[in-house]
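Structure first, sequence second, as always.
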């Protein structure tokens, strides 16, 4: 099984659509070369996103774990269950770093979990310090804090210039989920 020689830290952030899709694209590309990826989704759960079905077709090279509820998290007053689920996702990420059996670890919506107070800065800094040298770590979501962007090796900001939701178009199966 191939292993990365050098893993870096990537951040995908911004108000635009496509941060999760970009991270998933990286996982699918790397699977084509035999690399293993794990995607842990913070604040997402119980929605049948198309990527869950797609990942199964990659025969163990891509695994997605959801740690969230179907409902949106109350940014000003998150429910206890939302904090617990984010902490569970963080523990799963720490386990993956310790095991060091995958090549890419994607922590989807981690930036939002930070912004909403579900995670603490120290927890994320500790997590990044645990990253093995041969593992790529990708952190997605709006609201990436300045300190995180400073320590990352790559930061991509996805800007929204125009969005069809502004015209009342609802989320569509196969496009948004």
């Amino acid at each position: 099984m191939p292993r990365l020689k050098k893993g870096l830290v990537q951040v995908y952030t911004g108000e635009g659509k496509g941060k999760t899709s970009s991270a998933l694209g990286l996982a699918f590309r790397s699977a084509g070369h035999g690399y293993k990826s794990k995607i842990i989704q913070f604040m997402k759960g119980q929605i049948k996103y198309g990527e869950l079905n797609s990942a199964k077709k990659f025969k163990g090279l891509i695994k997605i774990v959801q740690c969230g509820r179907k409902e949106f998290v109350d940014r000003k007053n998150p429910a206890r269950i939302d904090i617990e689920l984010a902490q569970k996702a963080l523990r799963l990420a720490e386990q993956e770093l310790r095991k060091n059996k995958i090549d890419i670890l994607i922590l989807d919506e981690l930036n939002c979990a930070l912004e909403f107070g579900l995670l603490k800065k120290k927890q994320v800094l500790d997590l990044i310090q645990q990253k093995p040298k041969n593992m790529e770590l990708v952190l997605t979501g709006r609201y990436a804090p300045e300190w995180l962007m400073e320590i990352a090796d790559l930061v991509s900001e996805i800007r929204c210039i125009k969005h069809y939701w502004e015209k009342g178009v609802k989320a569509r199966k196969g496009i948004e989920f």
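Margin note: The mean pLDDT is 95.
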